[in-house]
Amino acid sequence: MHLISSLLFAISANIDSFIVGLSYGIKKSNISLLKSTIISLVTLIGTVTAILLGAEISRFLPASSSQAIGCALLIGLGLYYIIKSLYTYLSMKFKKVEVKASEFTSDSKDNSQAEDSLLTIKEGLFLGLTLSINNIGMGIGASITGLKLLPTALLSLIISVTFLYAGNVIGKTRVPPISDRTADVLSGLILVGLGIYELF
């Protein structure tokens, strides 16, 4: 049962890694499997820290309510991602940005000059740190619900490496990319589902 929860958490926490891989792939910037692993290890440090912090917080909570509090955090975070995505979508609709023509011409120039470039170690470390910050809230909430550290950390690492590398490969193809808004909705729905699952 806990393995399913750990898997859902790992998928939700690392959807951003897939989007990052896609964006770099679209820009023809290569993220090797080694670089994907390094970035994921940095991200894992933040996730593990958050889980350990959540475990410490749960020690000061009543045993009867710690599960409900953790689930409420996950559900609340999931709803926040969904609402943020809808707000962004509606804002863009109302603004009706009229720069498509200029973007199209600039894109065509960029594509003609695009060459493969490698992601530097410094950029990779910065990416890992940025992605780990996103996982802090999720890690604390998941830990309070009772998620086990070892399987959660292991699955998070595997899925992060896979998502980052696969996203980079897919980004270099003609497959339509997934937008940040779609990723937020998917992550939010998974978190809400995980919170409800852990509650019962």
Per-chain topology:
Blueprint: H1 2-13, H2 15-26, E1 29-30, H3 33-59, H4 63-95, H5 100-113, E2 117-118, H6 121-134, H7 136-144, H8 149-171, H9 180-199
Parallel strand pairs: 1-2
Helix pairs in contact: 1-8, 1-9, 2-8, 3-6, 3-7, 3-8, 4-7, 4-9
Using brief descriptors, characterize the structure shown:
200 residues, mainly alpha, two-stranded parallel ribbon, 2 strands, 2% strand, globular
What would you call the structural class? mainly alpha
The largest pleated sheet is described as:
2 strands, parallel
Radius of gyration: 18 Å
Number of distinct beta strands? 2
Q: What are the segments in which pLDDT stays under 50 over at least 5 consecutive residues?
A: 100-116
Shape: globular
The strands making up the biggest β-sheet line up spatially as 1-2
Helix-strand pattern: HHEHHHEHHHH
- Integer average pLDDT: 76
Helix content: over 70%
Beta-strand level of the residues, as a percent range?
under 5%
What is the overall number of helices?
A: 9
Distance between the termini: 11 Å
Descriptive account of the structure:
There is one protein chain. By secondary structure, the protein is mainly alpha-helical. It has 9 helices and 2 strands; from the N terminus they run H-H-E-H-H-H-E-H-H-H-H. It has a two-stranded parallel ribbon with strand order 1-2. Helix 2 (15-26) packs parallel to helix 8. The radius of gyration is 18 Å and the shape is globular. 38% of the residues are buried.
